[in-house]
Amino acid sequence: MSRLHTPDELVEELGLHTVLAVAAHPDDIDFGASGTIAALTSRGVQVQLCLLTAGDAGGFDAQRSPEETARLRRTEQEAAAAVVGISEVTLLQERDGFVAPSYELIGHLVRLMRQLRPEAVLSFHPERAWDRLQKSHPDHLATGEAVVRAAYPYVENPFAYPELEAEGLKAFKIQHLLLMGAPQERVNLRVDITGFQDRKLTALDRHLSQHRDAQRMREFVMEQLRASHGAGGYAEEFHHVLVNDPQTISGF
Q1: CB contact set of 245 (below 8 Å; sequence gap of 6+)
Q2: How many CB atoms lie within 10 A of CB 43?
Q3: Do you know which InterPro entries this protein is assigned to (predicted)?
Q4: Where are the domains of the chain?
C-alpha cells in the first residue's frame, strides 16, 4: 500500500500554495477529494474549482427541467465549496454526458491554468478503473484526459494557443497532477483526512438532488475512507504524477 501522507507533509513535499481542481459535474470533487481540499485550505492553500458541465443530466426528479437542475446543482456546489474552503467555482459549458477532450476544451483549461498558475492540478484519472466501474463515468475519463493534455504539453508550450500568449497569459510548467478515481494499481498517494471526514460528509450533504438514499451514501463513503487509511483513520487516494521538477528535460 502507498505511503500515507499527512496534509502538512503533502503541502511541504509538493510546495503547495495554489491548486486548481477540475471536475466534470457538481458533487464529483466532493466524492473524490473534498477531505483533502478541506485539509489544504485549512493550511492556507488556495483551491479553485472548475466544473466542465452544469450536471443537468443528473438526479432522480423526472419532473424537473434540465435548466432547473442546472441552476439547483450550481447552488448545491457553491454551498459545498464553502464548506471545504474552495475560493471560487467557475463553470464551463460542456454537454453533460458527452464531455470530450476537444481542442476547445483543452484551450479553456490551459487558459485557467495560466491564469491561476497552480503548483498542482487535481482532477480525474483518464484510465478506466475496472475494480469499480462507477468511478469511470465517461465524462470523468474525458475530463482527466483533457486535464492531462492541458498540463502537458500545452500549458508550457508558448506556441500552443498563441492567442493566450498574445493576451499575456504566459506559458509555465505545472509541477504536479493529483488524479482521483484511479485504477487501484495506479494509486501511489494516500492523504490522511482524519479530522476532516465530517466536513466531507457535510459537503456531500449539500448535493441533496443527487442522493436517493443519503444515509447509505454516507455509510459507503465512510467505508471507502476507512479502507483507504487502513489504520483506524480516514484517507483519500490519488495517483500523484510529477510532471516537472528541476531535473525534467522537456520531451523525455
Answers
A1: 175
A2: 13
A3: GlcNAc_PI_deacetylase-related (IPR003737), LmbE-like_dom_sf (IPR024078)
A4: 4-242
